[in-house]
Nudix hydrolase domain-containing protein
Amino acid sequence: MDNGIPLPGEFGQRARDILAGRLQPVPARDAATVVILRDGARGPQVYLLRRKASMAFAAGAYVFPGGSVDPRDTDQAVAWAGPSPKKWGEVFNADEKTARGLVCAAVRETFEESGVLLAGQGEDTVVADTTGDDWEADRVALIDRSLAFADFLGKRGLVLRSDLLKPWAHWITPEIEHKRFDTRFFVAVLPEGQRTRDVGGEADKVVWQRPAEALGGQFFLMPPTHRTLTELAAYGSVGEVMAAEREIVRIMPRAVEIDGEMRLMA
């Protein structure tokens, strides 16, 4: 986004109205996104979903699993192993309750949108397979919110493994958008024995792709996804990604006027 993205028509006018104080931005909702990684023959691969064309936000875009924090994600009853919510709050500059919700949303949304579950019977174990009919019933119940994440873990005797997540980035949707999210990005390795599947819902296609190939032009990518893939393309293995030093800096693309044209700059 060195030269920015043009904001024609309604978006350009909306940007002008917000900058002039004539219009107030929509509040951003807390959300979490997880980049699932696996090693391939030519380096790391990432799991991407294509959002249905009918979606109100980012229609047709290839994205990582993720979504908004459910208020129940902040429930202290969620069984937990790994770095505490307080520690995650320090990483993401958030209070402990918000941090708990972000990590729970990251694990819950990843399971809902890929079938991958970052949880185990204890702090040293991970669920090996989540493809049975009973798992599918729970996944659907989580999606329709008839089952809380804490209850899902509790009935299966599982603990959330926050140590399987690595913090990666923090993006806030630009103020010009009608729907806005305050999103923390995580990366995680596909657990041994688990496999992703086409789970439908908000997506009409899923792929495993090398970051460099996803950047090759055939995929519609939102700026945060494009930036994340660009960063990941520099690593030769999943191990290198997970060992990388990261400083989490909040990024919110902003609208600016250049030579009479409104453009979105990161």
Remarks:
- The chain is about 30% helix and 25% strand.
- The mean pLDDT is 91.
- Residues 5-265 form a domain with the Nucleoside Triphosphate Pyrophosphohydrolase fold (CATH 3.90.79.10).
